Amino acid sequence: MLKGKTAIVTGGTRGIGFAIVKKYLENGANVVLAGSRQESVEKALKQLSAYEGRIMGIWPDLCDPEAVARDFAAVKERFGRVDILANNAGVSSRTSLYEYTLEEFSKIMEINVKAVFVCSQAAARIMKEQGGGVIINTSSMVGEYGQPSGCGYPASKFAVNGLTKSLARELAKDQIRVNAVAPGVTRTDMVAALPQEMVDRISAGIPLGRMGEPLDIANAYLYLASDLASYVTGITLRVDGAAMT
Questions:
Q1: What is the pLDDT of residue 244?
Q2: Which residues pair with 86 in a beta bridge?
Q3: Which residues belong to the active site?
């Protein structure tokens, strides 16, 4: 479904991001795996050695426009194009408002919002020159419902939803589609850090009767990146088993 295309996946070293990387590789894309540290990127690349020649690792500061532009230019130089950007890097928090520090709140906004802006801008500049592309952002079910603590995380995902809709309208004239995927409770390291009773309570309310798997989310990313979604832009696609708060 993605043969001949080149994708950049941020937060691609584990969890949902790693599942997206594998799904894109399986479907013929060249994939650039972006992580926060060189060590984690190299570890992930070793697990994907079967795709040598079609995969590349980068580890820029995603909030640094110059670093991101430099590494994205290197991607274009190697593969000739940047067709897909998956803005998946993110951090979460469950801290109560009464204990929340400005530093913690700012960190979440930096990674979850500013990095999406910086990477989207860099990718869009390349995509416009080549005649189009696709940007997909990772939102969350809490970007619609909020959550009872850790207000910075849902606030950041509300912002991602707003960026998605606005960029979709702005970039449509350049044939750049922009969408988001909003996972529900998914079996990742982020969920593993939650108290088990909270996971059980949330999972019990999922009509499909199970927690999501990273592959479930990666499948949505594949659809939105592919030509099957050629007339789909500006949406936030919920992948949550019809879960509610």
A1: 65
A2: 9, 136
A3: 153
